[in-house]
Amino acid sequence: MSENESEDLTAAIKQQFLYLASEARELYLDSEVPLLTSPPTPLTFYRQYVAPNKPVLVRGLTAHWPALSKWSPDYFRKTIGELEVTVTATPNGYADAVTEGKFVMPEEQRMTMSEFLDHLDKGDDSAEVYYIQKQNSNLTEEFTSIISDVEPNLKLGSEAFGRCPDAVNFWMGDGRAITSMHRDHYENLYCVVSGWKKFILIPPTDLPFIPYGEYQAAAYSTDDDGNFHIVDDEEAGQVPWISIDPLKPDLKKYPQYASARPIEVVVQAGETLYLPSLWFHHVQQSHACIAVNYWYDMDFDIRYNYYKFVEKVKEIVS
Question: What are the pLDDT digits (tens) for 181-203?
Fold first, then answer.
């Protein structure tokens, strides 16, 4: 194949990427995340949202949770103040994110819940940004004494997905903490208990427009004076991660991102976001926001095959 023929083929494939994304928006994707004012039946939820891989915001799914009226910093100080928990710390709020040309993980620290809340009380005056975000089912592993205030399982999820959650996570942190753009191999039911979370969502059909890079794995580490340093993880080596920040996208460096169509949704206390598997998402939050999410393993079916096919073709023509 000549150089001109190769360039023509690459251009033709990129044009088909645009067609794929536009046809998805025209045929089945919503221009904004729909809001259901009451929980759907598992069958309706599966047919209208899970099967077509579409996000939806649901009110009332957690209305019976005692946590909605109980959970607050004061309640946590009284009930689990002496509980030792795992907390992440960064100097800028970005954990699991590209910083200084590396993929940098947060530093993990152990402290009591009361000590963590003391850090949150400092707000922007704190030089460190603290976040309880350990995604190892920490609600069922570390917060067992308050799990009765919520549920270890959501009936809507288990009946629709046909399985129990793989992990149930507790989230609470600084308003400066930001989750960088990524995607997961999980069906996610994200329940806000207090405050709000703001999601930027991009559908899997926009995958060709999401720039990735290979970055040296690293992690933050603090010295005896509390200063943060980035330390390479030589064993982990290179990590593929999304290169762009949707809050300030560099379209000169990544012009293809202009073809993506992000949608935003704010999840308030008492609301649950169904975040389908493989959807790209970036998350911000209010200060001291509290949330619980349920991860259910996705089905690695024909949708996953198509996604991986597009991913590989994208790599060839990039």
Answer: 999 999 999 999 999 999 999 99
- What pTM does this model have? 0.96
Q: Which residues, in sequence order, are CB contacts of 97 under 8 Å at separation 6+?
A: 103, 104, 178, 180, 241
Q: Residue 33 contacts by C-beta under 8 Å, 6 or more apart in sequence?
A: 55, 56, 57, 201, 263, 265, 273
β partners of residue 318: none
DSSP SS3 for 145: helix
Q: How many residues does the chain have?
A: 318
The kind and range of the H/E element at 79 are: helix 73-80
What value does the mean pLDDT take over residues 115-126?
92
Is the Cβ–Cβ distance between 128 and 253 less than 8 Å?
no
Q: Contact at 8 Å (CB) between 189 and 197?
A: no
- The DSSP call for residue 249 is -
Distance CA 70, CA 283 (A): 25
- Specify the pairing of strand 56-59 against strand 271-275: antiparallel
Phi-psi region of 252 (alpha: psi -120 to 50; beta: other; left: phi over 0): alpha
Query: Rounded to an integer, what distance in angstroms lies between the CA atom of residue 46 and that of residue 56?
Result: 11
Would strands 228-232 and 212-222 be described as parallel, antiparallel, or unpaired?
A: antiparallel
CB 39 within 8 A of CB 58: yes
Please name every residue paired with 240 in a beta bridge, in sequence order, or none if there are none: 214
Q: DSSP letters of 157-223?
A: HHHHHTS--SEEEEEEE-TT-EEEEE--SEEEEEEEEESEEEEEEE-GGGGGGS-EEEEEEEEEEE-
What angle, 0 to 180 degrees and rounded to 10, lies between the N-to-C axes of helices 113-122 and 73-80?
160
Place of tokens 């349920």: 294
What tokens appear for 112 in the block? 């009591």
Q: What is the pLDDT of residues 142-176, one digit of tens each?
A: 999 999 999 999 999 999 999 999 999 999 999 99
Confidence of residue 1 (pLDDT cuts 50, 70, 90): low
